[in-house]
From TrEMBL:
Residue ranges of domain CobQ/CobB/MinD/ParA nucleotide binding in the record: 6-212
Gene Ontology molecular function, alphabetical: ATP binding; ATP hydrolysis activity
Keywords: ATP-binding, Cell cycle, Cell division, Nucleotide-binding
Record-listed ATP binding positions: K11, G12, G13, T14, G15, K16, T17, T18
Protein name: Cell division ATPase MinD
GO biological process terms, semicolon-separated: cell division; negative regulation of cell division
One of the record's GO cellular component terms: cytoplasmic side of plasma membrane
Domain of life, per lineage: Archaea
UniProt cross-references to InterPro entries, sorted A to Z: CobQ/CobB/MinD/ParA_Nub-bd_dom (IPR002586), MinD_archaea (IPR010224), MinD_FleN (IPR025501), P-loop_NTPase (IPR027417), ParA/MinD_ATPase (IPR050625)
Amino acid sequence: MVTTYTIASGKGGTGKTTLSVNLGTALASFGKETYILDADMGMANLGIVLGLENVPVTLHEVLAGKAHVSDIIYDGPEGVKVVPSGISLQGFQDANPERLRDVMKEIINHCEILIIDAPAGISRDGVIPLAIADEVILVINPELSSMVDALKTKILTELIGGKVKGFILNRATFENTEVSVKKIREVLDLDLIGVVPEDPNVRRSAAYRQPIIIRYPDSPASVEIKRIAARLAGMEFDADSLKKKKEDKFLDRLARSMTKRGD
Ligand SMILES: Nc1ncnc2c1ncn2[C@@H]1O[C@H](COP(=O)(O)OP(=O)(O)OP(=O)(O)O)[C@@H](O)[C@H]1O
Protein backbone atom coordinates (compact mmCIF):
# COMPACT_ATOMS: atom_id res chain seq x y z
CA MET A 1 0.00 0.00 0.00
CA VAL A 2 1.22 3.50 -0.87
CA THR A 3 0.95 6.45 1.49
CA THR A 4 1.28 10.03 0.26
CA TYR A 5 2.18 12.77 2.71
CA THR A 6 2.20 16.48 1.89
CA ILE A 7 4.48 18.52 4.12
CA ALA A 8 2.85 21.95 4.42
CA SER A 9 2.73 24.93 6.75
CA GLY A 10 1.04 28.02 5.43
CA LYS A 11 3.85 30.27 6.60
CA GLY A 12 7.12 30.22 4.64
CA GLY A 13 10.45 29.07 5.99
CA THR A 14 9.17 26.75 8.74
CA GLY A 15 11.33 23.83 7.60
CA LYS A 16 9.14 21.99 5.05
CA THR A 17 11.99 21.29 2.63
CA THR A 18 14.39 20.32 5.43
CA LEU A 19 11.87 17.85 6.82
CA SER A 20 10.78 16.50 3.42
CA VAL A 21 14.39 15.75 2.46
CA ASN A 22 15.36 14.26 5.80
CA LEU A 23 12.19 12.27 6.42
CA GLY A 24 12.37 10.90 2.87
CA THR A 25 16.03 9.94 3.29
CA ALA A 26 15.36 8.35 6.69
CA LEU A 27 12.42 6.34 5.33
CA ALA A 28 14.58 5.11 2.44
CA SER A 29 17.32 4.16 4.91
CA PHE A 30 14.72 2.06 6.77
CA GLY A 31 14.18 0.11 3.56
CA LYS A 32 10.99 1.86 2.42
CA GLU A 33 10.73 2.64 -1.30
CA THR A 34 10.42 6.41 -0.95
CA TYR A 35 10.02 9.31 -3.38
CA ILE A 36 10.23 13.03 -2.57
CA LEU A 37 8.49 15.44 -4.92
CA ASP A 38 9.10 19.19 -4.92
CA ALA A 39 5.70 20.79 -5.47
CA ASP A 40 7.08 24.26 -4.71
CA MET A 41 7.08 25.18 -8.38
CA GLY A 42 7.80 28.89 -7.97
CA MET A 43 10.51 28.72 -5.29
CA ALA A 44 11.97 25.25 -5.74
CA ASN A 45 14.59 24.49 -3.10
CA LEU A 46 14.61 20.73 -2.79
CA GLY A 47 16.93 20.24 -5.78
CA ILE A 48 19.25 22.95 -4.45
CA VAL A 49 19.44 21.31 -1.01
CA LEU A 50 20.42 18.00 -2.63
CA GLY A 51 22.75 19.40 -5.31
CA LEU A 52 20.29 18.62 -8.12
CA GLU A 53 19.62 22.17 -9.31
CA ASN A 54 21.34 21.69 -12.69
CA VAL A 55 19.49 18.58 -13.82
CA PRO A 56 18.34 18.84 -17.45
CA VAL A 57 14.61 18.09 -16.97
CA THR A 58 12.38 18.80 -14.00
CA LEU A 59 8.77 18.76 -12.90
CA HIS A 60 8.31 22.05 -14.80
CA GLU A 61 8.82 20.31 -18.15
CA VAL A 62 6.48 17.46 -17.21
CA LEU A 63 3.78 19.90 -16.08
CA ALA A 64 4.26 21.78 -19.37
CA GLY A 65 3.72 18.53 -21.30
CA LYS A 66 7.31 18.52 -22.63
CA ALA A 67 8.71 15.48 -20.76
CA HIS A 68 7.64 12.24 -19.09
CA VAL A 69 7.64 11.48 -15.37
CA SER A 70 10.26 8.77 -15.95
CA ASP A 71 12.66 11.50 -17.18
CA ILE A 72 12.61 13.43 -13.91
CA ILE A 73 13.29 10.76 -11.30
CA TYR A 74 16.76 11.29 -9.82
CA ASP A 75 18.76 9.35 -7.24
CA GLY A 76 19.12 10.87 -3.78
CA PRO A 77 20.94 9.64 -0.65
CA GLU A 78 20.16 6.19 0.82
CA GLY A 79 18.28 5.23 -2.35
CA VAL A 80 15.54 7.84 -1.98
CA LYS A 81 14.19 8.99 -5.36
CA VAL A 82 13.88 12.71 -5.93
CA VAL A 83 11.57 14.58 -8.31
CA PRO A 84 12.88 18.16 -8.36
CA SER A 85 11.11 21.23 -9.61
CA GLY A 86 12.90 23.70 -11.88
CA ILE A 87 14.35 27.02 -10.79
CA SER A 88 13.61 29.07 -13.93
CA LEU A 89 10.76 31.58 -13.88
CA GLN A 90 9.86 30.77 -17.48
CA GLY A 91 9.54 27.09 -16.52
CA PHE A 92 7.24 28.07 -13.67
CA GLN A 93 5.07 30.12 -16.02
CA ASP A 94 4.76 27.27 -18.51
CA ALA A 95 3.96 24.61 -15.89
CA ASN A 96 0.33 23.64 -15.37
CA PRO A 97 -0.12 22.70 -11.67
CA GLU A 98 -3.38 20.85 -12.48
CA ARG A 99 -1.22 18.10 -13.99
CA LEU A 100 0.34 17.38 -10.59
CA ARG A 101 -2.35 14.82 -9.80
CA ASP A 102 -1.39 12.78 -12.91
CA VAL A 103 2.30 13.00 -11.98
CA MET A 104 1.49 11.71 -8.52
CA LYS A 105 -0.61 8.84 -9.91
CA GLU A 106 2.33 7.72 -12.01
CA ILE A 107 4.88 8.00 -9.19
CA ILE A 108 2.84 6.00 -6.70
CA ASN A 109 3.05 2.99 -9.03
CA HIS A 110 6.71 2.76 -8.06
CA CYS A 111 6.86 3.49 -4.35
CA GLU A 112 5.59 2.79 -0.85
CA ILE A 113 5.81 6.33 0.46
CA LEU A 114 5.61 9.62 -1.44
CA ILE A 115 6.52 12.84 0.33
CA ILE A 116 5.37 16.07 -1.31
CA ASP A 117 7.13 19.29 -0.31
CA ALA A 118 4.38 21.92 -0.59
CA PRO A 119 4.89 25.61 -1.25
CA ALA A 120 4.09 28.21 1.40
CA GLY A 121 0.86 30.16 1.11
CA ILE A 122 -2.50 29.32 -0.38
CA SER A 123 -2.00 30.01 -4.07
CA ARG A 124 -3.48 27.61 -6.64
CA ASP A 125 -0.28 25.54 -6.83
CA GLY A 126 -0.21 25.53 -3.03
CA VAL A 127 -3.71 24.12 -2.67
CA ILE A 128 -3.36 21.14 -5.02
CA PRO A 129 -0.74 19.32 -2.86
CA LEU A 130 -3.09 19.67 0.12
CA ALA A 131 -5.89 18.00 -1.79
CA ILE A 132 -4.03 15.13 -3.45
CA ALA A 133 -2.18 13.66 -0.44
CA ASP A 134 -3.57 10.91 1.75
CA GLU A 135 -2.46 12.96 4.72
CA VAL A 136 -1.09 16.45 5.25
CA ILE A 137 1.58 17.05 7.88
CA LEU A 138 1.84 20.62 9.13
CA VAL A 139 5.24 22.02 10.07
CA ILE A 140 4.95 24.69 12.73
CA ASN A 141 7.58 26.88 14.39
CA PRO A 142 6.97 27.76 18.03
CA GLU A 143 5.63 31.24 17.34
CA LEU A 144 2.15 32.71 17.13
CA SER A 145 2.17 33.65 13.42
CA SER A 146 3.28 30.14 12.45
CA MET A 147 0.50 28.58 14.53
CA VAL A 148 -2.14 30.89 13.03
CA ASP A 149 -1.03 30.18 9.45
CA ALA A 150 -1.01 26.45 10.19
CA LEU A 151 -4.57 26.73 11.48
CA LYS A 152 -5.61 28.44 8.22
CA THR A 153 -3.91 25.65 6.27
CA LYS A 154 -5.70 23.00 8.33
CA ILE A 155 -9.10 24.62 7.71
CA LEU A 156 -8.35 25.01 4.00
CA THR A 157 -7.21 21.39 3.68
CA GLU A 158 -10.41 20.12 5.28
CA LEU A 159 -12.55 22.48 3.18
CA ILE A 160 -11.17 20.98 -0.03
CA GLY A 161 -11.64 17.42 1.22
CA GLY A 162 -8.08 16.73 2.38
CA LYS A 163 -7.00 15.18 5.66
CA VAL A 164 -4.49 16.54 8.18
CA LYS A 165 -2.55 13.86 10.04
CA GLY A 166 -1.02 16.13 12.67
CA PHE A 167 1.81 18.59 13.20
CA ILE A 168 5.57 18.61 13.66
CA LEU A 169 6.93 21.36 15.87
CA ASN A 170 10.21 22.39 14.24
CA ARG A 171 13.00 24.64 15.54
CA ALA A 172 11.95 24.23 19.15
CA THR A 173 14.26 25.96 21.63
CA PHE A 174 12.13 25.12 24.69
CA GLU A 175 12.25 28.71 25.95
CA ASN A 176 9.38 30.11 28.03
CA THR A 177 8.44 32.62 25.34
CA GLU A 178 7.72 29.88 22.80
CA VAL A 179 4.19 28.83 21.91
CA SER A 180 3.88 25.47 23.63
CA VAL A 181 2.96 22.11 22.15
CA LYS A 182 -0.04 22.07 24.48
CA LYS A 183 -1.32 25.40 23.10
CA ILE A 184 -0.84 24.31 19.48
CA ARG A 185 -2.64 21.04 20.19
CA GLU A 186 -5.56 22.92 21.75
CA VAL A 187 -5.84 25.56 19.03
CA LEU A 188 -5.39 23.25 16.06
CA ASP A 189 -7.07 20.22 17.59
CA LEU A 190 -4.41 18.03 16.00
CA ASP A 191 -2.04 15.28 17.15
CA LEU A 192 1.63 16.02 17.70
CA ILE A 193 3.77 13.87 15.39
CA GLY A 194 7.11 15.01 16.77
CA VAL A 195 9.27 17.86 18.01
CA VAL A 196 12.46 18.75 16.13
CA PRO A 197 14.80 21.06 18.04
CA GLU A 198 16.61 24.11 16.74
CA ASP A 199 19.93 22.64 15.63
CA PRO A 200 22.81 24.56 13.98
CA ASN A 201 23.82 21.37 12.16
CA VAL A 202 20.71 21.72 9.95
CA ARG A 203 22.26 24.76 8.30
CA ARG A 204 25.75 23.24 8.26
CA SER A 205 24.55 20.11 6.49
CA ALA A 206 22.66 22.26 3.95
CA ALA A 207 25.97 23.96 3.12
CA TYR A 208 27.37 20.49 2.29
CA ARG A 209 24.22 19.73 0.22
CA GLN A 210 23.50 16.75 2.43
CA PRO A 211 20.57 15.85 4.68
CA ILE A 212 21.46 16.37 8.33
CA ILE A 213 20.60 12.72 9.08
CA ILE A 214 23.50 11.72 6.79
CA ARG A 215 26.01 14.45 7.64
CA TYR A 216 25.37 14.56 11.39
CA PRO A 217 23.41 11.40 12.20
CA ASP A 218 23.64 11.80 15.99
CA SER A 219 22.77 15.51 16.08
CA PRO A 220 19.61 16.25 18.11
CA ALA A 221 17.50 17.19 15.05
CA SER A 222 18.62 14.01 13.22
CA VAL A 223 17.57 11.77 16.08
CA GLU A 224 14.12 13.36 16.28
CA ILE A 225 13.62 13.29 12.50
CA LYS A 226 14.49 9.58 12.45
CA ARG A 227 12.05 9.02 15.31
CA ILE A 228 9.30 10.72 13.26
CA ALA A 229 10.21 8.75 10.13
CA ALA A 230 9.99 5.50 12.08
CA ARG A 231 6.56 6.52 13.34
CA LEU A 232 5.40 7.23 9.77
CA ALA A 233 6.75 3.86 8.69
CA GLY A 234 5.04 2.11 11.61
CA MET A 235 8.41 0.94 12.93
CA GLU A 236 9.99 0.85 16.36
CA PHE A 237 12.66 3.47 16.88
CA ASP A 238 15.38 3.16 19.44
CA ALA A 239 18.10 5.82 19.12
CA ASP A 240 20.35 3.97 21.58
CA SER A 241 20.20 0.71 19.67
CA LEU A 242 20.98 2.55 16.41
CA LYS A 243 23.99 4.13 18.10
CA LYS A 244 25.03 0.76 19.47
CA LYS A 245 24.79 -0.84 16.03
CA LYS A 246 27.10 1.90 14.71
CA GLU A 247 29.57 1.34 17.53
CA ASP A 248 29.46 -2.43 16.94
CA LYS A 249 30.17 -1.89 13.23
CA PHE A 250 33.11 0.36 14.11
CA LEU A 251 34.53 -2.23 16.54
CA ASP A 252 34.08 -4.97 13.91
CA ARG A 253 35.99 -2.88 11.37
CA LEU A 254 38.69 -2.13 13.92
CA ALA A 255 39.03 -5.81 14.85
CA ARG A 256 39.18 -6.79 11.16
CA SER A 257 41.90 -4.26 10.37
CA MET A 258 43.91 -5.38 13.43
CA THR A 259 43.77 -9.03 12.48
CA LYS A 260 44.38 -8.46 8.74
CA ARG A 261 47.71 -9.88 7.70
CA GLY A 262 49.84 -8.13 5.07
CA ASP A 263 51.04 -10.59 2.36
N1 LIG B 1 15.43 22.34 13.14
C1 LIG B 1 16.10 23.35 12.56
N2 LIG B 1 17.14 23.95 13.20
C2 LIG B 1 17.82 24.98 12.64
N3 LIG B 1 17.53 25.49 11.42
C3 LIG B 1 16.52 24.94 10.73
C4 LIG B 1 15.74 23.86 11.25
N4 LIG B 1 14.81 23.54 10.34
C5 LIG B 1 14.98 24.37 9.29
N5 LIG B 1 16.00 25.22 9.51
C6 LIG B 1 16.50 26.31 8.64
O1 LIG B 1 15.39 27.16 8.36
C7 LIG B 1 15.46 27.66 7.04
C8 LIG B 1 14.15 27.34 6.32
O2 LIG B 1 14.06 25.94 6.17
P1 LIG B 1 13.37 25.29 4.88
O3 LIG B 1 13.94 25.86 3.62
O4 LIG B 1 13.41 23.83 5.07
O5 LIG B 1 11.90 25.87 5.08
P2 LIG B 1 10.67 25.82 4.07
O6 LIG B 1 9.46 25.78 4.92
O7 LIG B 1 10.83 24.75 3.07
O8 LIG B 1 10.82 27.23 3.34
P3 LIG B 1 9.90 27.80 2.10
O9 LIG B 1 8.57 28.12 2.69
O10 LIG B 1 10.66 29.02 1.69
O11 LIG B 1 9.86 26.73 1.07
C9 LIG B 1 16.69 27.04 6.40
O12 LIG B 1 17.75 27.95 6.48
C10 LIG B 1 16.97 25.80 7.28
O13 LIG B 1 18.34 25.48 7.29
